[in-house]
Amino acid sequence: ATLTVGRDQTFDFKIEIKSIHRKENLFLLKKAWHDDATDQRLLICPHLTAAQAEICEELRLNFIDAAGNARIVTKGLFLRISGKKPVKSLTNSDNSAARISEGTLKLLLVLLNDEQAINATYRELSAAAGISLGMVSKAFEYLESQRYYRKSKGGRRLLSPESLTALWLREYAVMIRPKLKRLNLVAPTNWQDLTLKPSEIWGGEAAAALLTEGYLYPETLMLFTHTPLQQRRKELGLHPQQHGSLQMTGAFWGETLKLSLRSQAMLSIAELLASRDSRNLEVARMINDKYLGLTDSALFRD
Prior knowledge:
Distance between the termini: 20 Å
Number of strands: 13
Low-confidence stretches: 88-97
Shape: globular
């Protein structure tokens, strides 16, 4: 896109149109732009909060938001506009503005893990998802408001599970991943020799290696556990290291949930997509084709 300033000054940018719901979106965007000259990229987005605009300043991200605020710094141009408020839309409804929550994503993992889970009791769903009873209720209200779920005399029914799976994969990187507790450790010579507890599961590249029968050789390892991280580290005889290639990670679902192969594939793909590594994206496609069957447009949609 070309930006014209005055009568004859033009500046060319590669633009990216994106909704920025949380500050983590900006950090992910910065990571995605790392191979390009950042001053030649331009984010077009809905209104940014003052805090989000400040992060753009710190990360040197050029942007223009829907309210008219902007920060553009490139050779020959310095532009900064701030303080403009978003125009309220008369047609915008609370329903369309709703955003999925962390608790709803946790419940969705349970519902997508087993199609029979939809009719479990709230208490059972609470234990499986690792969320409160109140959050289970709020999650169902959200899904119903977005027409992903309905209830009838015959029981509850989850609608569009494929769309919900794609949604879960996209939102994991923003709503769940940044909040995970992690401990970096020195990886053992053969990671598959570690004796895991029944509730523990490999994630990310390690899970991808297992799901693809060794097609991917993992450079980083991720192990989900419900046991306190330091306690589990000592039990396994592993040593901390700041940039260790084994990430012991706190499991975010309840201990009563037994993850199916489909759910294990979802966890692996979500991490592979979040990495934005081209090799990992190729493997994510392979795992999707085998276990999920989403279209490429659903899988790789921003």
